[in-house]
Design a protein that fits this description.
alpha/beta; TIM Barrel; 12 strands; globular
């Protein structure tokens, strides 16, 4: 019989020993909770494709943020559903826009909560694209001014971090220049540096009412097969002054996440997007999987691949599980 000197099972036999030697641990500080702000008062409308996720009016989103903070959530990111849309996304940078209102209200109600504002135009444009449109073309350089203007309005409202997600070339530089020139050099930029044209955004587009009225976003979001290009995108945002680099989606792009983590010495975020969330929810509702275990395993894989920050609709549930289980 072979003399087995190395027996990895020795360190798996007891729960306490498994915890002692665990290589990656989830923490409440890892998570950012996305919230959708809409017009009106007393609105709490569940998104049909995302059970447990709601469109919330400013008063309701403030209560939601306060409740989440009490449960351990330390950061939120806000997306807006304006009352009206137009060709130039006026609601994105309006002083009284729904996100600007929500930032001010949350800042007052929960001063210790980190408030991130998604900085994009698609939720606010009548055509649903992330920039200025002429004919059927999304114009890059003409869009930068509006994106920077949106970031400035979010900073003026009290956002701690702005998150440009339009995938327009040069958007980080445009925002950094505008913020610095306006006295907001202390505001951080979390760049959606590597954002793929993914099928996993479907439920989000229902939640944010942001589906394009024509065509799709493949002309500016990344082509899923490309990895080397992802490094170029991340390098450009890094060189333009991004403080945090994001990969989106997360769980189906773990290889890209690891590449970004290995190459750049800045915090790296990953967005566990709506479709990834909905898949777990739907399978769990069918009784096919254990929802909590699948959630924690997925989020752990994202952190193991290199994410310092995880944006996920499961933030509250993950923190609750971590608190109850002690270590995951």
């Amino acid at each position: 019989m072979t003399n087995l000197i190395h027996r990895p099972r020795r360190l798996r036999r007891l729960a306490a020993v498994r915890s002692l030697v665990r290589e990656v641990r989830l923490s409440r500080d890892d998570f950012v909770l996305p919230l959708f702000v809409c017009a009106g008062k007393g609105v709490r409308r569940e998104v049909s494709s995302m059970p447990g996720v709601f469109n919330l009016s400013v008063d309701e989103v403030t209560r939601e943020a306060s409740s989440a903070f009490d449960k351990g959530v330390r950061s939120v990111i806000l997306f807006g559903l304006p009352e009206a849309k137009d060709e130039v996304a006026t609601g994105a940078y309006a002083e009284d826009g729904v996100v600007q209102q929500a930032i001010r209200a949350i800042r007052t109600a929960v001063p210790d909560l980190v408030v991130i504002a998604d900085t994009c135009l698609c939720e606010y444009t009548s055509h649903g694209h992330c920039g200025v449109v002429r004919g059927s073309e999304v114009l890059n350089d003409e869009s930068l001014e509006l994106i920077a203007k949106t970031a400035l309005s979010q900073a003026e409202a009290g956002a701690d971090i702005v998150g440009p997600s339009a995938m327009m070339d040069g958007q980080v530089a445009a925002i950094r220049e505008t913020l610095d020139a306006s006295g907001f050099e202390h505001i951080a930029i979390m760049a959606y540096a590597v954002k793929y044209a993914s099928a996993f955004y479907g439920p989000f587009r229902e939640a944010a009412d942001s589906a394009p009225a024509f065509g799709d976003r493949r002309a500016y979001q990344m082509d899923p097969p490309n990895a080397r290009e992802a490094m170029r995108e991340a390098e450009l945002d890094y060189s333009e002054g991004a403080d945090i680099l994001m990969v989106k989606p997360a769980s189906v792009y773990l290889d890209i996440l690891r590449m970004v983590r290995d190459r750049f010495d800045v915090p790296v975020a990953a967005y566990h997007v709506s479709g990834e969330y909905a898949l777990i929810k739907a399978a769990a509702q069918k009784g096919w999987i254990d929802e909590e275990r699948a959630m924690l395993e997925t989020l752990t894989s994202i952190k193991r691949a290199g994410a310092d920050i995880i944006l996920t609709y499961y933030a509250r549930e993950a923190i609750e599980a971590i608190t109850r289980l002690g270590s995951v």
